[in-house]
Design brief:
single chain; alpha+beta; 7 strands; about 30% helix; globular
Length: about 160
């Protein structure tokens, strides 16, 4: 399949029946960084999404020519929302889809009334989030390994005049 550029992509709400598709995409995307099989096996429960998850949270997919090539999801509470996931299929990396998804996530979170978006980043994705304007504010312990620390970042969603 030939991928097109970001301009030909459409972002839409995920459908509950796409849970398996986005789970498989998330695992392929995580595997892009060359993690070993034991690590990937440990990630499986965290990267397996259900129809109920899609129904309960804002989840959006990016489609190109009818194929889902990326997605993101948000988890919110009070004034803060977490970018729970943002994944792009490895075959589609480098075409601007991650940027499109991130910008859509920021706009969606702001529209929903959140004032700040928190990102628990994979260490390999930290540079991407920095380039998108996120600021590192600390670390979190990884749920996969106590020896692994994940960059904690945020983006302010409040208008500049507040």
């Amino acid at each position: 399949m030939t991928m097109k550029t970001s301009a030909n992509a459409t972002i839409r709400p995920a459908l509950p029946e796409e849970a398996r598709l986005i789970s498989e995409l998330a695992l392929r995307s995580k595997g892009y960084w060359g993690y070993d099989q034991a690590f990937m096996d440990a990630c499986l429960p965290l990267l397996t999404f259900s129809a109920a998850y899609i129904t309960a949270h804002p989840v959006f997919v990016l489609e190109v020519a009818g194929a889902v090539v990326g997605f993101y999801s948000l988890l919110g509470s009070e004034s803060e929302v977490e970018l729970d996931n943002l994944f792009v299929d490895p075959d589609a990396i480098g075409r601007g889809y991650g940027k499109r998804l991130f910008r859509h996530a920021v706009a969606t979170a702001a529209r929903l009334g959140f004032r700040r978006m928190v990102i628990e980043s994979d260490p390999h994705a930290e540079a991407f989030y920095r380039a998108m304007g996120a600021v590192r504010c600390g670390e979190r312990l990884s749920p996969i390994s106590a020896a692994r620390r994940l960059p904690l970042m945020y983006v302010s969603l409040a208008p500049d005049n507040e």
